């Protein structure tokens, strides 16, 4: 493909509104353009990367018997009324009316549509299992779309749905998908972890998330690509290195999820679901009497701790939540943070939100800062984190503004359900007892769920079993954020190219080192001087030669300055660069392998075998 | 692919709501399902046909340097306000608001989006020409969606847009597209005509439509596929043939357009644009005086003609239109029909509609049935068809209810602009003088336009030319109805399979003979008895053999009655059927080539070469 035919609007500067590097680079390198907030056009380069990713998916899904189809995006609200989601989905759902004033939505996912299609066609267990998927634009009216393709209002998703007679069959397909996802993300050149995820929002029972790990901003070995003229990091002057570190630190760490993983085992979970090892301490403590003490101006645990001179592990924090409209009290030790997802899942609540000051006043008779579990009405549920069991003679709010109680003891002074509701912290022991928890930021690129009968039951999708008895179909669902993959791959493969000028000045510039499988083209073929007929002829010969050997080639045939061609090339980030320069008359070109930085002059006759050797080494 | 893994919900009966055969068959054969009025899910078979069609398009577009991208479907109304179409597009435009109450639309086409993207990136003539396309869901809130995929509210479209410095460059790309479209539709196995189209609605100057021709309902050679047991049509008893003819006639002729084409030349045009040869007659006639005559109860030309005893060619019909709100009178000879599109294009009007009785009364002082061109206010434009020039001493309405004028002559009694505004009729001479016009019904599958500066001028998409002067970009646009292709191909390849039972009874059943290039699979491999281990093993061997040789194979591994497997197979319509039946133990299978009806028994070792020979003969 001739670059003069392509729309690749590269920019000289980083776009000022971008906070994460993938967003900045995908705009600057001319992959995408925003059309309106959170709504993007995928320009030709992005389209090619997505096509390559789609091809990988189609190959891997064919292996597990998944069949592609395509449902509409514009859906009658009646479908969503059947499942109940029309009323519960909230403001993220795009709603519209057609010319007859009937209600429609733009599909954010397609559980209802696929359930309906299968319900209307499948009547017998003999027709199951079925495993259907589609690759399609999806719509969510995000409150705050941001970070390029990471959170958008229109996005491309692969969504798959499987239909089974029993859970054993679902387990097989779920495991097929887990392996297929691992194969897909591995082939796509992504650094990812399969982690325990939260399926609560989808009504699921079992789920796994696939997270692309965001590189650590301080890992210079990861980020920097040194020019041949620079032997190692040590060569770079301290003040230049400091600037580089600042440049790296200036970019927001992308990925809205934190992955907690074991330093020594395969354990990995979304922070929302992560647990750490806990064993109740067996300690005999004599219970002190309850005593009310004035704690003026003490609003936080830290305030109380220092005012009363007690250790943090002897203080209990009391929170109030509204779970599906009912007040629920949560207790945690000291400054432990509550994990909403764990609490919500334990309560099996559809909605959980922190209570308002007014609601707190009603339940406790006091304001925030002095809440406590002692003396509450009997019908108020109290959920305490497991660690509260180890907290004796504790300090709690007195339910009177400006006062706390000391000597509070569970069992005697209040009753609670003990559950793991705290957010784990880095360094705590892994729940499987192997190693300690480490944290990383991740971008959710895939998610597989066991849905069970959530949709089939409400929508009446039943089959007759071997004995002629009707039963709801068992379902699974499987998503991949296709447009988000583009963000993830650029986030992981963005690099700072550091070079030294002949004068000895150090320069650095951002670019992309696309992995081979997702690069829009394999080779960037650059003619330095398009007005040189010999160079032009050699370029055409090499383009034909490379394409004949199966390489996808982008030929920069533009009449532009060579500096601008090379900087565009660094931005676009194809794996191999072939430059037709001064030695064109001798048939000699320069080959550069982007990932290794290898650069070599080679005669046109030896180009193909050289490329084969150089790329095999990767 | 194992058929047990596929969702192919075939039906025993034709769906009762289908009026055209393609709609009926695509539902009955399990290709599609309607989700809501005019909104369809493409089930796995339809998805595969569309994927194959997309692959053909991508190959042909790569040859002309067209580059694929993907714009969003959810568009900010601001873009459409820039072009002015937000206010003028009418009720077909889906409009919605996002959570901030900003106006959005669902894109029915993407002129604005692409114009904006190119405007914001391209500043110099050196960056042109550009030729971009996408394949994507489009939205039109059709008043009356109907006929399966022929008129839907969500549909898949390939839309391309080209950008040029001058019209010469546009002409080159337009011609490239014309050839690419011909190559695509030819490869897709479609019977089509490239015709002169109306580009008025798109603001275009030059346009060509590609119409898939609907087969004539009376052409038995086209529709019937006779079983080996029936030598020719003559063998079929008259009463059976009569039933077959009625079955064919019962299906509505699909295609909303009429194509007028020359019996002897390449001339072909949409009826909306078709002209016939016309030369003004040179005839000296003495002008009679105007005379008002009572014509009680005469409302139509036929009434007047028989009441007054004058030939039809001596009567003039007077019509009133409102063109962009202004009254315009149209005159035609006798019962000639006005062609709104020709009239609208001549007037360069944005909107043209027939006037109401009230508007007619205001302009003529009379009601419909007595309107005439004599004595109208001077500022009323009168557009007469060219043939009115040959109408002397004519009868026209007297502008007084119940009266006509005789002896009316243009020039003396009224003044008109003479233009071709009549609808041509079958049998009239072709405008190029070669042959006569014939009519056929067609389905619009493609359309190419020269847009000019319609969008670039209103949206400020300018470039600097060689001399640094700013000029609007010249544009072309190019559409293909991808989902509609599925309707067109089934419309043309639906067949009635006629067979004779051993008892001598004649039966006929609908099915599809998919052309090779668009068939979802190449081969339907059917195991008659899946409980026979030898048959099962042979089936697997043959599936592997065929797939290894590059055939796409659908293997019917279902435990169903053989009759139901064969009738499903006839409906689905794959080009080749391989049946593993009674002779499985000998390694012998039956091969049937659907288009020729050839059926042959062959040993598994000779299967591949037999298929090669049999399909080469096609």
UniProtKB/TrEMBL annotation, chains A, B:
<keyword id="KW-0963">Cytoplasm</keyword>
<dbReference type="Pfam" id="PF04073">
    <property type="entry name" value="tRNA_edit"/>
</dbReference>
<dbReference type="InterPro" id="IPR007214">
    <property type="entry name" value="YbaK/aa-tRNA-synth-assoc-dom"/>
</dbReference>
<dbReference type="InterPro" id="IPR004154">
    <property type="entry name" value="Anticodon-bd"/>
</dbReference>
<dbReference type="InterPro" id="IPR050062">
    <property type="entry name" value="Pro-tRNA_synthetase"/>
</dbReference>
<dbReference type="GO" id="GO:0004827">
    <property type="term" value="F:proline-tRNA ligase activity"/>
</dbReference>
<keyword id="KW-0436">Ligase</keyword>
<dbReference type="InterPro" id="IPR002316">
    <property type="entry name" value="Pro-tRNA-ligase_IIa"/>
</dbReference>
<protein>
    <recommendedName>
        <fullName>Proline--tRNA ligase</fullName>
        <ecNumber>6.1.1.15</ecNumber>
    </recommendedName>
</protein>
<dbReference type="GO" id="GO:0005829">
    <property type="term" value="C:cytosol"/>
</dbReference>
<dbReference type="GO" id="GO:0002161">
    <property type="term" value="F:aminoacyl-tRNA deacylase activity"/>
</dbReference>
<dbReference type="InterPro" id="IPR006195">
    <property type="entry name" value="aa-tRNA-synth_II"/>
</dbReference>
<comment type="subunit">
    <text>Homodimer.</text>
</comment>
<dbReference type="InterPro" id="IPR004500">
    <property type="entry name" value="Pro-tRNA-synth_IIa_bac-type"/>
</dbReference>
<keyword id="KW-0547">Nucleotide-binding</keyword>
<dbReference type="GO" id="GO:0140096">
    <property type="term" value="F:catalytic activity, acting on a protein"/>
</dbReference>
<keyword id="KW-0067">ATP-binding</keyword>
<dbReference type="GO" id="GO:0005524">
    <property type="term" value="F:ATP binding"/>
</dbReference>
<dbReference type="InterPro" id="IPR036621">
    <property type="entry name" value="Anticodon-bd_dom_sf"/>
</dbReference>
<dbReference type="InterPro" id="IPR044140">
    <property type="entry name" value="ProRS_anticodon_short"/>
</dbReference>
<dbReference type="Pfam" id="PF03129">
    <property type="entry name" value="HGTP_anticodon"/>
</dbReference>
<keyword id="KW-0030">Aminoacyl-tRNA synthetase</keyword>
<keyword id="KW-0648">Protein biosynthesis</keyword>
<dbReference type="GO" id="GO:0006433">
    <property type="term" value="P:prolyl-tRNA aminoacylation"/>
</dbReference>
<dbReference type="GO" id="GO:0016740">
    <property type="term" value="F:transferase activity"/>
</dbReference>
<dbReference type="InterPro" id="IPR002314">
    <property type="entry name" value="aa-tRNA-synt_IIb"/>
</dbReference>
<dbReference type="InterPro" id="IPR036754">
    <property type="entry name" value="YbaK/aa-tRNA-synt-asso_dom_sf"/>
</dbReference>
<comment type="similarity">
    <text>Belongs to the class-II aminoacyl-tRNA synthetase family. ProS type 1 subfamily.</text>
</comment>
<dbReference type="InterPro" id="IPR045864">
    <property type="entry name" value="aa-tRNA-synth_II/BPL/LPL"/>
</dbReference>
<comment type="function">
    <text>Catalyzes the attachment of proline to tRNA(Pro) in a two-step reaction: proline is first activated by ATP to form Pro-AMP and then transferred to the acceptor end of tRNA(Pro). As ProRS can inadvertently accommodate and process non-cognate amino acids such as alanine and cysteine, to avoid such errors it has two additional distinct editing activities against alanine. One activity is designated as 'pretransfer' editing and involves the tRNA(Pro)-independent hydrolysis of activated Ala-AMP.</text>
</comment>
<dbReference type="Pfam" id="PF00587">
    <property type="entry name" value="tRNA-synt_2b"/>
</dbReference>
<feature type="domain" description="Aminoacyl-transfer RNA synthetases class-II family profile">
    <location>
        <begin position="51"/>
        <end position="502"/>
    </location>
</feature>
<dbReference type="InterPro" id="IPR023717">
    <property type="entry name" value="Pro-tRNA-Synthase_IIa_type1"/>
</dbReference>
